[in-house]
Fold this sequence. Notes:
Blueprint: H1 8-11, H2 14-17, H3 28-35, E1 43-44, H4 56-65, H5 78-87, E2 95-98, H6 101-112, E3 121-125, H7 130-138, E4 142-146, H8 156-162, E5 167-173, H9 185-194, E6 200-204, H10 218-222, E7 227-232, E8 245-249, H11 251-260, H12 268-278, H13 281-304, E9 309-310, E10 316-320, H14 324-333, E11 336-337, E12 339-340, E13 349-353, H15 357-373
Parallel strand pairs: 1-11, 3-4, 3-5, 5-6, 6-7
Antiparallel strand pairs: 2-8, 7-8, 9-10, 10-13, 12-13
Helix pairs in contact: 4-12, 5-12, 6-7, 6-11
Amino acid sequence: MPAATVSATELANPEVASLIPYEPGKPIDDVARELGLEPGSIIKLASNENPLGPSPLALQAIQDILPKLHLYPDGAGYHLRTALARTFGLDLKNVVLGNGSNEIIELAYHAFTRPNPAGHEIVTSENAFAVYELMAQLFGVGCVKVKEKDGFHHDLDAILAAITPRTRLVFVASPNNPTGTRIPNADFDRFLDALPGHVIAVVDEAYYEFLDNPPDTLRAVREGKKAILMRTFSKIQGLAGLRIGYALTTPEIAGLLERSRQPFNTNMVAQTAALAALGDTEHQQKTKAITDAGRAKLQEAFAKMGLRFVPSEANFVLVEVGDAAAVFKKLQTKGIIVRSMVSYRMPAWIRVSIGTPQELDRFLAELPGVLSKA
């Protein structure tokens, strides 16, 4: 008798088969094709990208490296890791490169968690970056989500209380995506000091350069605490398309993350551009200035419109608009892409990235009419 037909989905790991993939911001080209718009007429305020574009020094470095693309990249990322270590007063052995900081999340799961029935868990905040929970499902690890306090802020005491002997990773972010809220510096210090020895803190600092008074989380690394600081070149340096991020951590943890990654996980162009962008302080200062001004403009406008929003410390603002899916779609017809928070289980909210002054003016001009029709 012929063998029964079995689908690929039935053969797949159940954690993969049931996974709802991460939903990124809509690309400009997709919206242009779907709505018949000219790509140049569309503005994207959806993915927290740099409104000034890439670091000019990075662009020049990319041009210079192109003739060498037939060679494999430096698998150890020596020059970039050395520069990062020097910048933050650490050692080469404290730095791990990732294909975006997202890969650092995955490496932490590889290195420190085992799937059920071993029973490992991670703990995070309820309105945190969706990938923390998605990776937990993919790895067959439990995910404990802790309620927030005081208007979308991490409740660090509740996070500590949620830790059990099964917990291996605790994810916290400051500023947090998608809320834009930060953890006060003194609270951060107490939290890192209070973590039990069987837990590793994964501290997402993708937006830390936008803080006026950032916490000294490097202290935890210098003191040998079990902490992984995740940072990225995607935001203030404007290199999101190259997917290059890094972790700052203890040599012991760094060695374990290194064993968990693929060879050549970061490419030559990304490493070269990141090294140049790291030293481009002028571009970083301009980016922070346009971000600070744009964030103030958005929040002032939302307040005048009577819209509830979360005061932000990052390069985006979360605002309540009623029917987020409808507002998202109507703004798209106007050639404006924002981020609906429906996939974050926040169906009344959209997240708006800080764009150029002209982009924000256009968004704010269209928003009242869109809201009246949504």
